[in-house]
Amino acid sequence: MADRLRGEIRAGRTPVARPVPPPDVSGLTFGDVCDRYLVEYAEQYLRQRPAEDARYHIGIIRRTHVSAARRTTIRLAAKPFTEVTTADVKTVQAARRPYGPVGCNRLMARLRHLFNWSIAEGMIDHTPFKRGDVTLVKLDTHAEKERTRRLQPGERARLLQHANPHLQALIIAALSTGCRVGELLSLQWSQLQRDEQNDTQVIVLPASKTKTHDLRVIPVSSDLRAVLEMRRTDPTGQPSPPDAYVFGNGVGERLTTIKTAWRNTCRRAGIEELHFHDLRREFACRLLESSADLHDVPGLSRSRQHHNDLTVRPVRLAQALERMEAAAETRRRR
Q1: How far apart are the C-alpha atoms of 194 and 310, rounded to whole Å?
Q2: What is the CATH number of domain 22-135?
Q3: At 203, is the secondary structure helix, strand, or coil?
Q4: Residues of 67-83 as b/e, b for ≥16 C-beta within 10 angstroms?
Q5: Of 45, 26, 97, 38, which Cα lies nearest the Cα of 62?
Q6: Which helix (H) or strand (E) holds 168?
């Protein structure tokens, strides 16, 4: 093709551009296009964490069941790509809405981008999200607003009162460390460092287990140390092995979610509009109120800490934790 065009130019003839036929997608399912999207877009242009998020969202979307012929349903992945309708997209949205507005909004944004990418690639010429200038499927533009929810007086006690023992331990851990729920559920006993008296002193979160891919070293408060001591042995009374999960099930196997337990606990405690992630904000705010330095509060400092500072930072953080615990004890006595 290139040699022919150069020959026409040398002969003084204006080459005639021949249209490139669009890709044939007549035989592709929605799942086939998802595979191409992940390989040709997510893996090529996104960083590791966003690419993982894309794979997670696409996995949920393609597993969602949508209406099919004769009042049956099929997984969206099995439906011919060109036959995916606005109704199918709304089915995906409705299926994810109970899991929270932010998660639903981000998943729908990923699905919308997949269709826009498909248009740019010449696979289709329209998206089920729009008809002309009319938006048919709307995303919740208010979902991403920054939350400011904090624990109100008495809510901590009510949460602990109505939670099961496993969730009680997680609540104390979140309020004592500021860790995300995923970081706590993935915590293994090998990540805990003990002193000469075999008391747990710090938690080491490797970069592979944090959302920001940064190593974090977190001092253990006295409240959390008591919780960890109660969970150190398995049902037979033997110490848990290093690869067992601290907040796993009774035999140390990893748990993946606490959503149902959290929702039921908040309902029984009469607490509304409180997310487990809000406990992370509560920890950070209480730490700052205890005169902690902003850069010592995990998750608040955006700058990466130099590795040589990792031995200094936990010391300052431990001191701030002591002040925070003293202040909490004073509040409980009032």
Answers
A1: 17
A2: 1.10.150.130
A3: strand
A4: eeeeeeeebbbebebee
A5: 38
A6: helix 165-177
Asked if residues 163 and 265 have their Cβ atoms less than 8 Å apart, the reply is yes
User: Closest Cα partner for 60 from 111, 102, 114, 136?
Assistant: 111
Helix or strand run (H / E) with residue 200: strand 200-205
Q: Do domains 22-135 and 155-333 have the same CATH topology?
A: no
Residue 245 main-chain phi, psi, to 5 deg: -90, 130
Looking up tokens 């993946």 gives 256
What are the structural domain ranges in the chain?
Answer: 22-135, 155-333
- DSSP-assigned letters across all residues of 8-61: HHHTTPPPPPPPPPPP--TT-BHHHHHHHHIIIIIHHHS-HHHHHHHHHHHHHH
Cα–Cα distance for residue pair 113/196, rounded to 1 Å: 54
Torsion of CA 324, 221, 187, 218, to 10 degrees: 70
The pLDDT tens digits for 253-277 are 999 899 999 999 999 999 999 999 9
Q: Which residue has the tokens 């008809």?
A: 131
Among 283, 292, 310, residue whose Cα is nearest residue 193: 310
Residue type, 183: E
CATH of 155-333, one of 3.40.50.850, 1.10.630.10, 1.10.443.10, 3.30.720.210: 1.10.443.10
Model confidence pLDDT, tens digit, residues 163-186: 999 999 999 999 999 999 999 999
DSSP run (H or E) holding 218: strand 216-219
